[in-house]
Design goal:
Distance between the termini: 83 Å
Shape: elongated
Helix content: over 70%
Number of strands: 0
Structural class: mainly alpha
Length: 283
């Protein structure tokens, strides 16, 4: 007697319709990967970086080409100061979606915040080519060019960033302050102060803008006013996740301004605080 062949429905689909089974499995994995990506995003917002990275690793096992997971993994890795991991993830994202300006921007940004300006330049330039109306890209390109001592190119990028920001409503204080700093180093104090005044009008509680205004007033020998802005800067929190004008820099400004004002005791207090604070890189 011939034995009848019996297969369960899932196995029948697998054997008789392998393409359909594969597609169904792929869709299931894709949905699971997307859910893990969302979970990782929530963990990232809560500051749980290691847990977020673990969820993203699981997501990428299910869908290795899930670019949003790769870019989020890079952002989490940067927040955890794991720049090699961030660069590796972004290199994959660029490989999978070479036409996406955001992927190139993030890669350039990652190199920039890791102080590797030479390698930051190509992806930022590529991002600008792909999306020329993105003010943020022009801004970080300007910062990178400035770090590479390409002053004229940096100025052109700052100007373009300000133009694009104005077209969209108003210039951002961050851009105004960064551009003003460059002009300050070039001795173009009048132009620098004009930008700082615009920044303060936009963001009066900007620690960086208050500090830069104090420096400009010191150069104009308006020491009492420089002290006012220096003290204000000291009361305000650090900007850019810990970057920006440091307490050490502000104490040095105040020490000099008090000294010029003949207030030796206060000058010595701030000079001692300046010397006690460790040097910190300002990006």
């Amino acid at each position: 007697m011939r034995r009848s062949l019996f297969l369960s429905i899932p196995l029948a689909i697998c054997f008789l319709f392998p393409a359909a089974f594969s597609q169904s499995t792929a869709q299931s994995d894709s949905h699971a990967a997307a859910a893990l990506h969302q979970k990782a995003a929530a963990l990232f917002r809560q500051g749980q970086y290691e847990q977020a990275l673990a969820a993203l690793d699981e997501a990428l096992k299910l869908d290795p080409k899930l670019v949003p997971a790769l870019t989020l993994k890079a952002r989490v890795a940067m927040a955890a100061n794991r720049f090699d991991l961030a660069k590796a993830s972004l290199s994959q994202a660029v490989e999978f979606e070479p036409g996406a300006a955001y992927n190139h921007f993030l890669l350039g940004f990652c190199y920039y915040v890791d102080n590797d300006f030479k390698n930051a330049l190509p992806p930022l330039e590529r991002s600008r080519q792909l999306k020329p109306d993105d003010a943020r890209t022009h801004f970080y390109l300007a910062l990178t060019l400035e770090a590479l001592a390409r002053v004229d190119d940096a100025i052109a990028s700052y100007e373009q960033s300000l133009k694009l920001e104005k077209d969209r409503g108003a210039a951002l204080a961050d851009t105004l302050v960064a551009y003003a700093r460059l002009l300050f180093t070039l001795g173009r104090y009048g132009e620098s102060e004009s930008l700082i005044d615009r920044a303060l009008a936009t963001a009066p509680d900007s620690r960086d803008a208050q500090y830069e205004k104090g420096r400009l007033l010191f150069e104009r020998r308006a020491y009492a006013e420089a002290i006012i802005h220096g003290k204000k800067a000291l009361e305000l929190p650090l900007e850019f996740l810990g970057a920006g004008a440091t307490e050490r820099q502000i104490h040095f400004l105040l020490a000099r301004a008090y000294a010029k004002s003949g207030q030796k005791e206060l000058s010595e207090i701030h000079l001692a605080k300046f010397r006690a604070a460790p040097p910190t890189l300002r990006r």
